[in-house]
Design a protein that fits this description.
Number of domains: 4
Radius of gyration: 31 Å
CATH class of the largest domain: Alpha Beta
CATH architecture of the largest domain: 3-Layer(aba) Sandwich
Distance between the termini: 10 Å
CATH topology of the largest domain: Rossmann fold
CATH superfamily of the largest domain: Vaccinia Virus protein VP39
Strand content: 15-25%
Helix content: 25-40%
Structural class: alpha/beta
Shape: globular
Oligomer: single chain
Number of strands: 31
Length: 714
């Protein structure tokens, strides 16, 4: 019976497997350090297969820095870590599909490799910007942690792997590049084929990050560089104005995976009076000023064909009437803004559109000042395949563009829709510090900003996963829950955050920053939470989720008239799930298994006597279960049921994806009942069986009753 390995994948060997799939003749076997045979690449043979496409010598285009090779090795190196569930710090642990992981995000990304390979639709990260005062992850590339700590002082008194990356450090840029490079190498594996990663950055490392992303994701995978205005000015004191311009923007790099097609259509909105004023102030004349107060009687005229041979039905209008917005405002004693609100679907401008449809209509109708409309099914564009009506008017049969096609009405206000571009100036950054009802020492991202990013990629009902492995104050989780409440979506989040100690940060920060950290500590004390960044993030998710759910329930309760019902309850599909405002807290820790499990050859016979169990003291059944989920690559958010079979506790993950029983002595009757359920996977303790013959019997039972079940022991 096979044992669980409890070790993250060897990424280097996975890459060898990929090469083997393409060039099997270039892969051979060689002895590893432990004396065992493993697959290895014959580079001479690979060079021959690639011919002249091999880069030789020193002159080739590349971006490098001190420590780059070590960062590659660090990303590929397997680790013996696990994720331990913390039910008491979670919210709705049994039903939620969201995850909050505490620990080093490099280790978290390794632990997620098998379970979430190719399953994450969107990644957003806001890493340290390397301003000279940031604390960054200092990875141990070449020596064990004790030696590294001793030689570099890179860990604090609690063993946290964080260092202050001051600009006096000779490796100022190299440390940062190595830190982000290894994480992006792993993050790429998690993206779906049509997935996208968004990375916030400022101008300190924007250039280097772009080069790293070109290498990791491929230059052809670059989508956009978004420039986001975050504030009017940087620093109330005006510091730095004598040397350079104030900073009031940040950048977002966007890269797609191999099958990325296009962003969802996303629009910004400008209040209509503001839009018209800005348009006129720029010296242009606002075009949407004609109102069709009557469309008249519509009479069938004739049928013509489009380019594909499909029918176009032409109708002629008689008795139609138009007035200008200003004239109608005067007649009705209304403001022009009120006219736009009242007649939004009848206000238009005309366009000399160069289309084959318009040409065909011109040829089939008269040259009089007449209004015509057509019904047809477009073969392309936003209305592809849908019955569509468009209007033409005047001797030249100019195309009528209705104003409501480029506007939205919210309550009593009208906004002009502007398709989002790469310059974002409309995200609300006011009172960001108060969002989520928790303070934060290094500032937060705007909720509006993160929602806008998510809307570019995610759809409400696709059950997609959004990952943020520099989660900070948990704005990403807040944004996902808010979006799901608004459109009854099923997006899920995975957040990862190092539990940075605020007491240590308090010693490092000065002035206003120190005061903010002190406020965070006071807040956590009031709520009886520990002094870490993670506690702030989790508290924000709890508070934001409760508030969002209450608002959603109040909105649905008040939906009594048709308008409210249309805007709220009717948007909820029959298959929509209840709003998920929970999260499972998982904490990265050393393996559940003692060293004897991995290196029995190094353990003496006396040690074996003393260590009857190969499982560390203090580890619960749930710890063991989640260790198995990680090792087997089973998603960590699946529902878990606890059952009792023959007075023994049995865990059933997602109705048979994995069944586990960790009792010390499992009778045959229990094994037969578990096998009868025909699970995909089953796992037991090795010590649950008194002899080798008992284990062989278990194997035979599953072969007979459920031959497709994979059975392992720990």
């Amino acid at each position: 019976m096979e044992k669980m390995k409890f070790e993250t994948p060897d990424m280097a060997q996975m890459n060898v497997e990929k090469i083997a799939a393409l060039f099997p003749n270039c892969v051979t076997e060689s002895k590893a350090k432990d004396g065992k045979l493993k697959k290895a690449v014959n580079f001479d043979a690979l060079k021959q297969m690639l011919g002249e496409s091999v880069a030789e010598g020193d002159e080739s285009y590349e971006f490098t820095w001190v420590g780059k090779r070590d960062a590659m090795v660090e990303a590929a190196k397997p680790i013996r870590k696990t994720l331990r569930p913390c039910v008491e710090e979670s919210k709705n642990f049994d039903t939620t599909e969201n995850l909050y992981i505490e620990g080093d995000n490099l280790e978290a990304l390794k632990l997620l490799q098998e379970g979430y390979l190719g399953k994450v639709k969107m990644i957003y990260i806001d890493p340290p910007y390397n301003t000279g005062n940031d604390f960054i992850y200092k990875d141990d590339f070449r020596m064990d942690s004790a030696k590294y700590a001793e030689e570099s002082g890179a860990v604090d008194d609690e063993g946290n792997r964080m260092v202050q990356n001051s600009d006096s450090n000779g490796r100022f840029h190299s440390d940062w590049c190595s830190m982000i490079y290894s994480r992006l190498l792993l993050a790429r594996n998690l993206l779906t084929d049509d997935g996208v990663i968004f990375i916030s950055i400022d101008d300190n490392e924007q250039e280097n990050l772009k080069k790293i992303c070109d290498e990791v994701f491929g230059a052809d995978s670059f989508i956009n560089l978004i420039v986001a205005k975050t504030k009017d000015s940087s620093g109330a004191s005006g510091g730095g104005e004598d040397k350079r311009l104030k900073k009031n923007v940040e950048f977002v790099l966007c890269y797609g995976k191999s099958n990325f097609k296009a962003f969802n259509p996303v629009y910004g909105k400008i209040p209509l009076p503001q839009y018209i004023k800005e348009y006129n102030d720029s010296g242009k004349s606002f075009k949407y000023t004609t109102v069709y107060t009557k469309l008249g009687e519509r009479t069938y005229y004739k049928t013509i064909k489009d380019g594909s041979g499909a029918d176009i039905l032409i109708y002629k209008h008689s008795g139609y009437e138009t007035k200008s917005v200003s004239k109608l405002a005067a007649e009705l004693n209304l403001s022009e803004e009120d006219v736009y609100k009242k007649y939004l679907d009848r206000i238009c401008t005309t366009e000399n559109a160069q289309t084959s449809i318009r040409t065909r209509v011109q040829e089939a109708t008269d040259t009089q000042d007449t209004l015509y409309s057509i019904d047809y099914y477009p073969v392309s564009g936003r209305n592809k395949g849908a019955l569509t009506t468009i209007y033409f008017v005047g001797p030249q049969k100019r195309l009528i563009n209705w104003f409501n096609n480029v506007c939205i009405k919210e309550g009593e206000r009208v906004f002009k829709k502007e398709k989002v571009g790469t310059l974002w100036t409309d995200c609300n950054w006011n009172n960001v510090a108060r969002e989520g009802d928790v303070p934060f020492p290094n500032g937060k991202k705007s909720l509006d900003f993160i929602k806008k990013i998510c809307s570019l990629v995610t759809q409400p009902n696709e059950n997609c996963i959004v990952l943020d492995f520099f989660s900070g104050s948990a704005t990403t989780a807040h944004a996902i829950m808010q979006m799901n409440a608004e459109d009854y979506g099923n997006r899920k989040f995975i957040l990862v955050q190092l539990p940075e100690d605020l007491d240590i940060a308090k010693k490092e920060y000065q002035g206003n920053s120190k005061e903010i950290v002190e406020n965070c500590i006071s807040f956590l004390d009031e709520n009886k939470r520990g002094h870490t960044i993670c506690e702030l993030g989790k508290e924000r998710i709890r508070r934001a989720g409760d508030k969002i759910l209450a608002e959603q329930q109040a909105k649905e309760k008040s939906a009594t008239d048709k308008t409210d019902l249309f805007n709220s309850a009717s948007n909820k599909s029959a298959t929509a799930k209840p709003l998920d405002i929970g999260f499972r807290v998982l904490k990265i820790d050393d393996s559940n298994m003692k060293d004897v499990y991995y290196s029995a050859g190094e353990i003496s016979q006396q040690d074996l006597v003393e260590q009857i169990s190969n499982i560390k003291d203090g580890r619960t059944d749930m710890d063991l279960l989640f260790g198995c989920l990680v090792d087997w690559g089973v998603p960590l958010s699946l529902p878990i049921k606890t059952e009792t079979i023959e007075n023994l506790q049995v865990y059933n993950v997602n109705d048979g994806d994995l069944v586990a029983c960790f009792s010390s002595d499992i009778p045959e009757a229990t094994i037969r009942q578990i096998a009868a359920a025909k699970p995909l996977r089953a796992v037991f303790r090795d010590s649950s069986f008194k002899s080798d013959s008992a284990k062989i019997n278990v194997t035979e039972i599953f072969k007979t009753i459920s031959p497709n079940t994979t059975v392992k022991v720990i």
